[in-house]
Amino acid sequence: MPAIRFRWFAVALVLCCLIGLGAKNRVQAQGAKETAAVQITIPGEDRFTPFAITVKVGQGVEWINTDTDDHLVISNDAFNTAGHRGTSVLIPGNGGTFRLKFNHEGVFPFYCGFHAMLDSNNQPKAPGPDGGIQDADGNFGTPMNGVITVVSD
User: Fold this and answer.
1) Cα(51)–Cα(98) distance, rounded to whole angstroms?
2) pLDDT over 60 (residue 19)
3) What is the pLDDT of residues 6-15, one digit of tens each?
């Protein structure tokens, strides 16, 4: 009789361990899903797409430059409340990438230093006669910028 009880106890113990491991794996998988990086693409027409995104605290953002030209990601520190102040990173053309992980709430406005500049109010504007790219019609285009909003869970 004691051997039968021991077998049932052993079976119950093994089942509890398997259920516990399954629950742990589900939690880890959910955590991995929540922290997956959101992508911002730089296509050939000098813009960030999408322009605005929202991510959760602990989540990363990855910029992918599919353009042939190099681009810069520069933090607009006058309005940056999400961390990574002073960011100024060159992303090489033809597949270069850059990644940031955001650890607290706020906003991260950014722009490309080659295709935008800040005016006296720290607002991005298209490069003008003092520098920048001008098309055949004399237009300087729109400023290349974007914003990331970081929210809590």
Assistant:
1) 16
2) no
3) 455 545 544 4
Tally of CB atoms within 10 A around 38: 15
Helix H or strand E encompassing 19: helix 2-34
Query: Beta 60-65 vs 38-42: how paired, if at all?
Result: parallel
Predicted confidence (pLDDT) per residue in 88-137, tens digit: 999 999 999 999 999 999 999 999 998 888 888 998 888 766 555 666 77
Stated pTM of the model: 0.72
The four Cα atoms 62, 67, 72, 75 give a dihedral, to 10 degrees, of -40
Residue type, 22: G
Domain boundaries, the chain: 1-34, 38-151
| Whole-number pLDDT of residue 54 | 98
User: What is the residue whose two structure tokens read 């992918």?
Assistant: 64
What is the dihedral angle through the alpha carbons of 104, 107, 112, 118, rounded to the nearest 10 degrees? -130
Residue 33: both structure tokens together: 């899903």
CA distance 51 to 26: 33
Q: Which residue has 């810069």 as its token pair?
A: 72
User: Per the CATH hierarchy, to which homologous superfamily does domain 38-151 belong?
Assistant: Cupredoxins -  blue copper proteins (2.60.40.420)
Q: 148 with 62: CB under 8 angstroms?
A: no
